[in-house]
Recover the amino acids of this structure.
């Protein structure tokens, strides 16, 4: 885990930045991005291989359209996912 946070902190961030299971505004602070992505990855199964297209489709369900590419990069940066060297396959790293 890159950042430590409390359940209360998580609930506050989720309630401030999400409505109806969608991110309304991407926070500027990295820790808040991390917390939102930690919530997002619960949509995925451990041990399953995903394509970039599948990851993008899930991101677009939650994040504003212009944000999904940056958030996909953060999934790798925060080590939530690993990906193949050609970028075609993704899998959970938790």
């Amino acid at each position: 885990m890159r950042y430590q946070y409390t359940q209360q902190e998580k609930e506050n961030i989720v309630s401030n930045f999400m409505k109806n299971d969608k991110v309304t505004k991407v926070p500027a602070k990295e820790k808040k991005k991390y917390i939102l992505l930690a919530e997002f990855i619960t949509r995925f199964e451990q041990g399953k291989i995903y394509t970039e297209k599948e990851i993008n489709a899930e991101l677009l369900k939650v994040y504003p359209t212009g944000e999904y590419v940056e958030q996909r990069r953060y999934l790798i940066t925060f080590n939530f996912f690993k990906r193949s060297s050609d970028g075609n396959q993704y899998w959970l790293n938790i």
Observations:
- The longest helix spans residues 7-17.
